[in-house]
Amino acid sequence: MSEAPPPPYEAGPNPPIIYSPSSSAVPPPSQLSVERRPTPFSSTLSSTTTPRYTASSSASSDLGPSVFSSPGDGLDASASWSKTGDVDVWIDLKAKLPDLEEDLAPSVKEYAVDPSGDVPILNIVMFVVGNSEEIQIYIALALELIIRHSHRVRIATQEAHKGAIERAKQSLGGKVGKDGRALEYKLDIFDIYDSPTSSLAEWCRRPDTLEATFRSFYKSTYWPEPISGSSFAADLIVACPSAVAHIHVAELLGLPLHIVSATPWSPTTAFSQPYTTIRRSNAEARLSAYLSYALIENLMWKSLGKTISDFRQLTLGLPPSDKVIGPGLLDRLKIPFTYCWSSLVASRPADWKEHIDVTGFIYPNPEPYRPDDQLLLFLKEGPPPIYVKLEFDHRLEEGEVPLSIIIGGLKKLGSRVIVAGKGATDFKAPDVFVIPDGEGLPLNYLLANARVAAICHDGGTYVTSMALKNAVPSIIIRTNASSRFWGDRVYEVAAGSRPIPIDELSVEHIASALDDIYSPKVREAVRSLSNHLRSENGTDEVARSIHRHLPLLNMRCDVIPSRAALWYDAERSLRLSGVAAAVLAREGKLSFQQLELNRPREYPVSLADSDPIIGGVQAFFLAITKSIVKVTHMFSNPAPQRVVDIASQQPILVRQIQNPKGGWTWQYERDTRPRMPITDMKSGMREAGQEAWTGMKDGMKGVVMEPLRGLQRAGPIGGILGLVQGSVGLATHSLAGAIRAVELGVEGGLSEARNRSGSGTTTQIYPSSPADVLRSSRAKTSMEEAKSLTEEEKRQILEEYKRAAKIPERVEARKRRQERISQGLDVAAVGHVQGGIALGVTERPDLVSAKSGSNSGVGKWWKGKGKGKGKEKVEATLSPSISISGSSHQHQKEIEQNEKEQEAQAEVERSQRGGFSGGQ
């Protein structure tokens, strides 16, 4: 068998690959002749065969969706899908650059987080695409979120995983959450109408078939439970990174988004993107690694961009995206990431900042398993075998099947074998135990208690983590680029043999791998790692990480702080939980149509920052492609320090309204020119005049400067063209200034309303628009939750709402607090907002005992104001305890007395001012 040349990056440090026109490495796709452009997934070429090519370059748009090419004055880079579903990358810098610093990324100041605060019970939807092993970590995480935190979790994934999710649901039978509800009803699956073997690479091959899948992800946030019909409305999206609809749905609905992954997706200089193979590069190692993340993002956008834009525009009513702002969204917006592996195996890169956590492996709970007698007999009758678990269809150049080489080599070297996977039945022999394809054998069982001596696999995260936990050495067959990441990590920590590229399989390599795994060094390393990993609780840490990055300051009910806020009462600057809003609606105090949907976080997808540090890897890639001069400051020592403040990304206005053509118009408004704050109509008109003058001034400047620039560029003709351009600029700048002046005047009016509401972001969401889709589901869940309340509990909710809405000091305190949140400032400076009642806090006996703390009536304010309007009969069933926040009955009396004094003082102040004032 002829031996193929080794891939560019072996285990360990990644040296730069020097570009040479005479190199035998695969040329970039832009240099391939039209007749021999690469065809993904079906090419007859091996990954190391050099096809014919010419020196002429092609534009990316001419190469089809499977190839991305970006020639520029600073960088000429290309990426293409390989036949294995990985991405091949070529990098050609036009000038020599030093390497990037390890810690170049900007710090991240997250928005509205409250890491030490309690987390209310949430409805969580998970967007997951993957195989039967990849789904396991998300099922285990879902069970953790349900059992320990009483969240409700819906997993939107392929129907092929229904059996695994149903078994997990059965394990919840008979268990009750802290809210008193049965846990088995808190887990369900939502079918996304996708194939069982779907992957991101498969999606990129058939983007036209993804409409139903993307639409299903969107529907999973609000669609009723298919079997029981119970309402569901998401409060949080947790997703795997490859489920690319996540950020677009989160943008539409204003929901928090958290990405959980077992392989790296966040740009770093520490290692290249695991799904890429850098075929050729003349850049230094860290710079090459960093650019690989931009190239795979741009290639994915080249393949899926039109489908994503159509989904945004036609289904979600969002503006279409483009090749500039589409790639690298998760990085640019600093979406929270949690990587579920142990830092003992893969350390956290220095350029992963505050929004990224590395927590530990997620290990699914072992399922009950009774092995058949034949397997037990095979395990007992000889030394521990080697378990071969490989799932791939691949033949080498000579037509040999890799599985036959592996098993033949192991047998020749005297090892007993257990084999599972496609084609396993072809290898029956006395020293080989075959597990037929489709018959599950839990890894928890086979890898435990030293039943096997080692496991031979393809480097998947799940199998790798299980081997490490059970102190079983790994022989990793590197089938593609993604398996290189874990293959290298395992070898670096001496938990297995050197990874074997599949095209280099031989008996000699198998023999070398056996020498490695039986060595004292590897045996001691796996025992030590196993002891450490068993002391970690990665599943719990992932759940904590999700909670830690939530914008909790925008997610709690102001009346019942232990409940999630679903609604926003703009008139009174109140966030309301479903049960609080339902009680108020039944009493006729407000209606669900009057309330805004609570939107804890906004995502200004269409507002890109061109700064190569602040704007993330895509901004860096665009800048260095255009000119190396634009990024030279990033290579200085020390590198410039930056901070990304998520609060500054939050818009002052979010609007989705119907346009004359019947579609939807989506608009973000965010300050772009530093100016005095607009707090009322007067300040708005002041800034309107300033903006009009600025527009006129910019236009006049263009009349002078454009002809001069034209003269410098192209002589007299350029000067004439510059004069024309400057004259047009005078008109357009003046018109833009006038339009902006009108907008600022309107903003002044909006600020008057915001002063009354205290809202950091004003929303104008058209009824029945795509962004309003949660309203019906939230209203139904709100009414369902309220059915379990007693009359006493409803009375206390009404009383607390009265205090929260009518005491000016409390309204002002909430507005000051919200203002600081929207500015990214510490809310501790304004103290905690008073009030709030505790509902369902069964862990605190002191709160439970205070249930009857207040015996006063609802109060004069409620008399004759809608009492009984729309009121429905409520069953006085047993409900979770409800109490006024405090440690005793006496403490509650003190709170009530203090609030009465504050209300009396406020009444005097209002009479002196001549009316209520809620301004800031």
Automatic annotation (TrEMBL):
Compositional bias annotation for Polar residues: 756-767
Keyword Repeat: no
Keywords, alphabetical: Transferase
Domain of life assignment: Eukaryota
Protein's name in the database: Glycosyltransferase family 28 N-terminal domain-containing protein
GO molecular function terms listed in the Swiss-Prot or TrEMBL record: UDP-glycosyltransferase activity
Biased amino acid composition, Low complexity: 39-61, 879-889
InterPro entries assigned to the protein according to its UniProt record, in alphabetical order: Glycosyltransferase_28 (IPR050426), UDP_glucos_trans (IPR002213)
Gene3D superfamilies linked to this entry: Glycogen Phosphorylase B
Keyword Transferase: yes
Pro residues bias: start-end ranges: 1-18
Region feature Disordered, mapped onto this chain: 1-67, 751-788, 847-920
Comp. bias intervals (Basic and acidic residues): 891-912
